[in-house]
Amino acid sequence: MAAAAESGGHRACFVLGASGETGRVLLRELLARQLFARVTLVGRRRLSLSEEMGATVEQAVVDFERLNEHAAAFRGHDVGFCCLGTTRAKAGADGFVRVDRDYVAQAAELARAGGCKHFVLQSSRGADPGSRFLYLRVKGEVENLVQAVGFDRCTILRPAVLLCKRQESRPLEWVVQKFLGVLARVFPTAYSVPVETVARAMVATVLQPGKGRVEVLENGTIHELGKAVPEQGT
């Protein structure tokens, strides 16, 4: 793995939100493609990984309410991937803002101070700091905060509705995803995107040269990038 990472110019990366739907797939992609000599998962608890994964992954357990005390967890990484997020239904309005905006922005600051050059953020289509909808407003605010940190390169992905098989039960979302899954056969890039495609697109941003210091990738581009990265082993 080290040889592959050095040839690509990347030695280490960290992943925020590796326990989420996109984060789990992203971790598999990173390990399968052997892009980094070191992959660190930063989260509030240790994840149960397979023996093979556990041998190549470091885990840093942090208290997000006291994140400044965990600066070392973010030190020494070239690239940071952020899939961190929750829902208003799960955490309440204040909790959602704290996780999706405050935690992410503070982690980005620590990452930059620790030497991270490229930050890859999973946001949302329609993100707008001026939106009257809390979700889209918070996503827009955190985009601005992350950009302001001053990474050499900042890539923001704005996927539409994520298509995935969630570990937790969300009946209404299941119905919506079924409907969008059918709609995607007619309009494949308009309203939704599989989490696998988002994860591959995040990997592709590291493999391809940047187009400016800040890149904002909308749903159609995410589909294109996700398809541009060949399946492992092909």
What can you tell me about this protein's structure?
- The protein has 234 residues and is α/β, with parallel strands linked by helices.
- The protein has one domain (2-161, 195-228): NAD(P)-binding Rossmann-like Domain (Rossmann fold, 3-Layer(aba) Sandwich).
- It has 8 helices and 9 strands.
- The chain has helices at residues 2-7, 21-33, 51-54, 88-113, 134-149, 171-183, 195-207, 219-228; strands at 12-16, 38-43, 57-61, 79-82, 118-122, 153-157, 161-163, 192-194, 214-217.
- The strands form 2 sheets. A 7-stranded parallel β-sheet has the order 3-2-1-4-5-6-9, with helices on both faces. A two-stranded parallel ribbon has the order 7-8.
- Helix 2 crosses helix 7, helix 4 (88-113) runs parallel beside helix 5 and helix 7 (195-207) crosses helix 8.
Radius of gyration from the alpha-carbon trace, in angstroms: 17 Å
N→C terminal distance = 19 Å
Percent of residues in helices comes to: 40-55%
User: Which structural class fits the helix and strand makeup?
Assistant: alpha/beta
Low-confidence stretches: 1-8
What CATH architecture would you give? 3-Layer(aba) Sandwich
The CATH homologous superfamily is called NAD(P)-binding Rossmann-like Domain
Give the H and E element order.
HEHEHEEHEHEEHEHEH
What is the CATH C-level name?
Alpha Beta
Please describe the biggest sheet, giving its number of strands, its sense, and whether it closes into a barrel: 7 strands, parallel
Q: Identify the overall geometry.
A: globular
Q: Could you say what the CATH topology is called?
A: Rossmann fold
Strand order of the largest sheet: 3-2-1-4-5-6-9
Strand content: 15-25%
Mean pLDDT across residues: 86
Give the number of domains: 1
Q: Count every helix, treating DSSP H or I runs of 4 or more residues as helices.
A: 8
Beta strand count: 9
